Amino acid sequence: MNFRLIEDFSALDPAEWNGLLAESATDAPFLRYEYLQAWWATRGGGEWPASARLVLAAARRGERLTGIAPLFFTENRAGQPALLLLGSIEISDLLDLIARPADLPDFAAALLDFLAALPLPWQTLDLHNLPEASPSLPALQSAAARRGWTFRLERTYPSPAIPLPGNFEAYLAGLDKKQRHEIRRKMRRVEESGRPTRWYIVSQVDSLEAEIEAFLDLMAHDPEKAAFLTPSMREQMRRTCRAAFEHGWLQLAFMEIEGQKAAVYLNFDYRNRIWVYNSGLDRAFLDLSPGWVLLGRLLQWANEQGRTEFDFLRGDEEYKYRFGAVDRFLVRVQVQRA
What we know:
By secondary structure, this protein is of the alpha+beta class. It folds into two domains: 164 residues, Aminopeptidase; 151 residues, Aminopeptidase (3-Layer(aba) Sandwich), CATH 3.40.630.30. Helices cover 37% and strands 29% of the residues. The strands form two sheets. Strands 1, 2, 3, 4, 5, 6, 7 and 14 form an eight-stranded mixed sheet that branches. Strands 8-13-12-11-10-9 form a six-stranded mixed sheet, with helices on both faces. Strand 10 and strand 11 form a beta hairpin. Helix 6 crosses helix 10 and helix 7 packs across helix 9. The radius of gyration is 21 Å and the shape is elongated.
């Protein structure tokens, strides 16, 4: 297994990267070439300094791409010189090494050898937002033990999701009776309100830029999200939406009431799953619960279109569980070199 250090995205073929990802243990939109390239351009919307260095460790067996460790070098939050996964930490909800399951043990062992030889003064491999069930974890633990390095794992965030039965009524039947009644009542109230309403998924490239700005404006109705949306973060969100749209996995959905945008969900429609990434709401329309109603419509659409899962990603907000989500967990792995 031969490794190469790559310090510019242009040196890797996007189709080859995404092809390997499709066969990898963790195939998530946050690991796509176009997503991470956009993330790196703004250093995660300003989360990391411009001085951070790109460290793409790509391994091959012969001509075949075997694995990618998409890393960067900087000081971590504890002030340690560290190698972190691209996408870390705040805005990429699911990260991992990119390798086929059968290759992961050899890839992890060779990766630590390769990283140890780099002319970088890193002290810790600090990996955030890995799925708890990822086979990367035992592979890294075994590789660290072989070198006499310290391996630490901690559970960090719940990442709840809803398995979808393929039928909206069957989905509703699986909910708590009170919650099922509440969803139906709110969806019916909108229909019976007499106020013109509609919901739609953005599909036209000509309107994309305006729709992205409308999404950001609705996000900013929440004071906490308004503070989050710095100019750099707004640019990051724009780049993410454009990349996802261009490659066919953006689901930007709005609900309008009386011609005004009342609620929005920014989701990813990827690998037959809906990944719920962010949302916004105009509180002037709270009487019709547009956020809940739009979420209900999206769940109905996902069932009708044969999507297998509705993934709410990182966070334990109460509404996720009221809609039937079941917890999975994310972890942080730290490998400390001797």
